[in-house]
Fold Nodulin-like domain-containing protein.
Amino acid sequence: MVGQSRKWMILIATTCIQAFAGTNFDFSSYSSTLKSVLGISQLQLNYLSVASDMGKAFGWCSGVSLMCLPLWVVLFMAAFLGVFGYGVQWLVIKQVITLPYFLVFVLCLVAGCSICWFNTVCFVLCIRNFPTNRALALSLTIGFNGVSAALYTLIANAINPDDETLYLFLNALVPLLASSLALVPILRQPPLQLLSTDTTGRDSFVFFVLNVLAVFTGLYLLLLNSLSSKASRARILLGGALILLLLPLCLPGIVCGRSWARRTVHTPAFCLEGPTFSSFDPDDFDQLHKELIGNDRNNNSSSVNPFSETNKEGLFGMIMEKGRLTVLGEEHPARLLVRRLDFWLYYVAYFCGGTIGLVYSNNLGQIAQSLGYYSQISAIVTLYSSFSFFGRLLSAAPDFMREYVFTANCVYSVYKLASTSPAIVRLFACKLPLLKFDNLCRYILRTRDKLDFARTGWLAIAVVPTPIAFFLLAASGGEAALLASTAMIGLSSGFIFAAAVSITSELFGPNSVSVNHNILITNIPIGSFLYGLLAALVYDSNVKSSNQENLLEEAMVCMGRDCYQQTFIWWGCISLLGLISSLLLFLRTRLAYYGYQRNRGRTQVS
């Protein structure tokens, strides 16, 4: 019981760390000020953004450190990297000290490393303490990383709404404070223990409650953040946000209380001697399940494998069949990984889908400024942050759909109970005829495999809003188009970021995920450089060719739709490539997911 409460404390501590560790998402809030203080061009500012993302290329260092050092030591190493990287930048932007451009670049690189180290620590904590529900734990904690910008906006407005340099100071200090508060639960981690089916089911329900609370937190920050322009109101809203973040602290007490009540409270009225919700005949269930899906499997056998012998001719058939994954969870060392076509399809989908959304968020400050919405930069950054948060939470949808499939088993057991107990028969006769109950049960069982959709299919769906958003921005420079596109890109990229860890684990092995995922995210600094370079070149060319060349403390500022219109068109075409790649990945891997689902279904029945 104590171990169960401790693991939930670990989850809450991890959530708090992630909520304040997403310091790269508020870059747009102070980038214009940093650009003017340093007197640099948009291209040079883009290089600073790339330096922050390059920190992810050194993520393997945190994994190696965890092999040699205690987890809490690595956590504080991440915190002090952030203190140094952001703290010295704050002194530069406050003009307390003066540094050459190259050293500022190095500071951005160090600050980016701290984010990656925080993420690695949180991933390890979730995987260690929730081996059965690790996908739910990862999506929840990674989700709160997306709300960091909204929280930092509230804190900055609560202190001084007119001081944009506060963001760097907060980026340096707040993660260190959050790490200090999380130290006690991390030091008191429970030992690994095998969980019963009942405990796993209760954990899934708790995750559902936590996700509902997280959605409420995101709506709170999204809808009320616009009211935080005054310090007094911002302080009240910040207090409410902190209460929502700390509300799950009640969870360990509830878990312990329920366990104690189950062991000590014995009420005969609720003790059924005979069939219960979990005491049904597996053979009957297996027979019914085979009866319901057998015909579909025979009738649609050709649709299960659409790339049969007749379709293997030609380039497309070769792409679909050559070296495709047939089994999920098979371990792939790095040398085997880079020879997999499935990995490179996945890499391109991430590179052209999620990474391009991150680069868009880094350029939000200049985009809003060029379109004439400079005073609304904080609100637009908060909008992106909030929808990125919702996208990360949505990445848990496949796992909750599996819980719906599990409900099918429960429905069938209720049906068996109702059909064998005269008292239950009389109870259901007045409200729900057994015939309708039987039909409901059969319908859920018939659709159980259809509901268990491949996670790579969800990835393809998540990429869809990104090209739509970029083409909308290219077609219109209005405020409504900017807000709608920012929301769509945040939702899409947030889903991809959160789902990527689970997809990497499923496709290429859970034991190799720490190495393989760091190989995958090497596309982030590459994309940040290439996409940012494209945007900066278009931006600077429009500054030099237009009559609207302005000098803002020695920094060139471009105004008008032309500053980013060509960039949006290019980004939209690139994200279409990511959509095509994700669709090919889904088509190549869905048979592996189908086989995994079938095997898991047989295991659950047995």
User: Anything to note?
Assistant: The longest strand covers residues 550-552. The longest helix spans residues 565-605.
